[in-house]
Structure to design on (196 residues):
């Protein structure tokens, strides 16, 4: 985003004023309001959590009885009822580490994005690949009837990923929150009712 555009960004300004770590908080707030992905007392796994705005929203939605564990390659500062750890979703041992630390999750939230190269085909394929890795972890820790949400770069592999997730959930829906920038290709795949 160009510096001039950032100054005009309504959600960025609100995030700063309301103490969120990034404007992405409003995407999850909107999704959770519409689909109730996270409820009071939920245990939540946040994959790709840095800088931590989704952890903030998840911790608030889960409340005092809830727990949030964020995982990212980068450090994300912990919060009340939210811990973070460094980890790579493509590391096959991460699922077991998360399961030992968290137990079963009621919701998995995933806002993963690769380091963008500027080559759309490469970036899209890489982002979808990260989602498949995250879905493997989700499959290990998500409780039956649990919910999930994944950021998806729209493109040639998005429908295939949605179909893959559709086999695991009672309902899936692709949506674009108003907090997403209009020019962004990101969509969010909401997945409800994990079949386990």
């Amino acid at each position: 985003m160009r510096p001039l555009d950032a100054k005009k960004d309504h959600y960025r300004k609100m995030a700063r004023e309301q103490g969120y770590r990034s404007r992405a908080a409003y995407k999850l707030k909107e999704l959770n309001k519409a689909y109730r992905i996270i409820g009071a007392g939920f245990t939540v796994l946040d994959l790709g959590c840095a800088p931590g705005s989704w952890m903030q929203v998840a911790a608030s939605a889960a409340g005092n009885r809830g727990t949030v564990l964020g995982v990212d390659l980068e450090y994300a500062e912990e919060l009340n009822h939210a811990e973070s750890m460094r980890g790579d979703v493509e590391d096959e041992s991460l699922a077991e580490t998360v399961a030992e630390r968290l137990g079963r999750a009621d919701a998995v939230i995933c806002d993963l994005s690769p380091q963008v190269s500027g080559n759309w085909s490469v970036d899209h394929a890489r982002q979808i690949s990260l989602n498949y890795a995250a879905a493997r972890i989700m499959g290990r820790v998500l409780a039956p009837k649990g919910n999930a949400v994944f950021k998806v770069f729209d493109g040639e592999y998005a429908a295939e990923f949605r179909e893959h997730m559709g086999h695991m959930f009672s309902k899936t829906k692709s949506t674009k929150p108003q907090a997403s920038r209009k020019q962004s290709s990101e969509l969010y795949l909401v997945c409800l009712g994990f079949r386990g």
Observations:
- Confidence is low (pLDDT under 50) at residues 1-7.
